[in-house]
Design brief:
Helix content: 25-40%
CATH topology of the largest domain: Rossmann fold
Strand content: 15-25%
Radius of gyration: 23 Å
Distance between the termini: 16 Å
Length: 491
């Protein structure tokens, strides 16, 4: 099968969050299964060019219709860790992707609408006719709209689109100007309730809604979150649209790439280990303490790794930090926020705790350090208010860092409470789960986890092995996506 991924991120060359990991991991899994997979990305000036091999210009005459004129683009091709990627470089005074950042610009909707249009124009002009086009999040939500309303008349009538939503909170709500820019026009047609009109703002276009309506199949990144998006308000206004299109909507749990996230082969950690040699994990713990200037004491290390976003339950992260310091545990945080006030608050917290030998706050993101923290931490906290899938809890399980999570989204599908496992066999229990968003809830889970570490080390070790035994690779999700692709090919 010939599959083209159109996305705004792909790790490690252009990665802001989990989207980049998913695009790369899924593409590699599909490739390993014998499919021809290509990825189309914007050519950002700030991407990791050192992660692209053999980068060369392969198409220098791509003219993309834009408003009433054309924008000249070049297309580059290179290999990103075995994956063929095409990078679209527009030569325009707008400098869509020469801004030193991936996201955060005022004309965000126009930037990615242009990229989506250019990606399809590239496929058309180079006679690429994939069986499946897989687009991701609001940034490429307009891809199935353009394909259905324009490109199917230009020789691309047999292409099918799978559209994956990674985060419903950001939907690409914008003005009808993008319709004119992309050549769709007819706002009176597209601004219908059943097409692209935003469900809350009748004067706005919703690019994510367009992706849902026009694609052949829609997925989100865990089965639990698919249900939450339809029925609990976590669709952020798109509940009615999802329910209308329920027959083509499902949740497929993300995977992680065990070639990258695996303590047996991880090149970023000093001591490799597996289930048989898990005691070697503690050499990494000592190295982590040395690097972060933590006190060497008989205490567990509890970590938070991820964006400092309100979605992640920031008040609970802060409370967990102080609870750990007061209850014979150490705390490590690695993360930052695109919001200046949140970053400023955590910098203030870092300065306040700077002399405490039992905690370290690293405000920023460091890929190498994240590997060290997973390998050195005893536990991982994820008190998310909502979590479509989450990758840290799956990575943490592989590295023997016990996840402590709130029962929401993909965390429900991947973490099973040691003490309240229901009908699950004990060997499947791999962490601690709490339900509410208040302080007593997170305290209860932390108390159980820290207590087990201090008083029942053999049972804690068994919990580590339970987590390492789980298979969170891309094998099962890859098979499910191939089944979806085959399903929509037959339509």
């Amino acid at each position: 099968m010939y599959i083209v991924q159109i996305a705004s991120e792909c790790a490690p060359v252009a990665k802001v969050g989990g989207l980049g990991d998913v695009v790369y991991g899924l593409s590699r899994e599909l490739q390993v299964r014998g499919n021809n997979v290509e990825v189309v990305l914007p050519m950002y000036d700030c991407m990791r060019y050192d992660q692209v091999w053999g980068l060369e210009k392969v198409y220098d005459d791509l003219w993309v219709p834009w408003y009433s004129g054309w924008v000249h683009c070049s297309v580059w091709c290179g290999e990103v860790h075995g994956l063929r990627c095409y990078f679209i470089e527009p030569h325009s005074q707008d400098n869509f992707f020469n801004r030193g950042c991936f996201y955060g610009c005022e004309d965000e909707a126009r930037r990615f609408t242009f990229f989506s249009k250019a990606a399809l124009e590239f496929l058309l002009k180079t006679n690429r006719r994939p069986d499946i086009i897989h687009s991701h999040d609001w940034q490429t939500g307009i891809v199935p709209v353009l394909l259905s309303e324009m490109y199917h008349r230009s020789g691309m009538s047999n292409q099918r689109v799978c559209y994956t939503i990674h985060n419903f909170k950001h939907q690409g709500v914008t003005t009808e100007d993008v319709l004119w820019a992309a050549g769709l026009g007819r706002p009176d047609y597209f601004m219908h309730d059943d097409l692209m009109r935003d469900n809350f703002n009748p004067g706005a276009v919703n690019l994510m809604k367009g992706g849902i309506v026009y694609s052949n199949f829609v997925t989100t990144v865990s089965p639990q979150h698919a249900w939450e998006a339809c029925y609990t308000g976590q669709g952020f206004g798109l509940e009615r649209t999802l329910q209308i299109h329920r027959v083509k909507f499902d949740g497929v749990l993300n995977g992680i790439d065990y070639n990258v996230w695996n303590p047996e082969v991880d090149r970023h950690i000093p001591a490799h280990y597996n289930m048989e040699t898990v005691q070697e994990k503690y050499r990494n713990k000592e190295t982590l303490r040395d690097r972060l200037l933590l006190r060497k004491a008989y205490k567990p290390i509890i970590a938070y790794i991820g964006r400092l976003d309100p979605q992640k339950g920031l008040h609970l992260i802060r409370h967990a930090l102080f609870y750990c310091l007061q209850h014979n545990a150490q705390f490590v945080l690695l993360g930052n926020s695109p919001e200046m006030d949140i970053n400023a608050y955590f910098w203030h917290l870092k300065n306040y705790l700077n002399d405490n030998p039992d905690c370290h706050l690293e405000i920023g993101y460091n890929e190498e350090l994240s590997h060290m923290i997973y390998a050195g931490a005893d536990m991982l906290i994820m008190p998310s208010l909502f979590e479509p899938c989450g990758l840290p809890q799956m990575i943490g399980s592989k590295y023997g860092a016990i996840p402590i999570v709130r029962a929401v989204g993909g965390l429900v599908n991947t973490v099973f409470d040691r003490d309240y496992c229901g009908d699950r066999p004990p060997e499947e229990c791999n962490g601690y789960v709490f339900n509410q968003t208040d302080y007593p809830a997170v305290e209860s889970a932390l108390n159980r986890a820290i207590g087990l570490w201090h008083h029942y080390p053999d049972e804690f070790r068994q919990l580590i092995l339970n987590g390492m035994r789980h298979d969170f690779s891309w094998s099962s999700p890859g098979a499910k996506y191939l089944a979806i692709y085959e399903h929509i090919r037959q339509k």
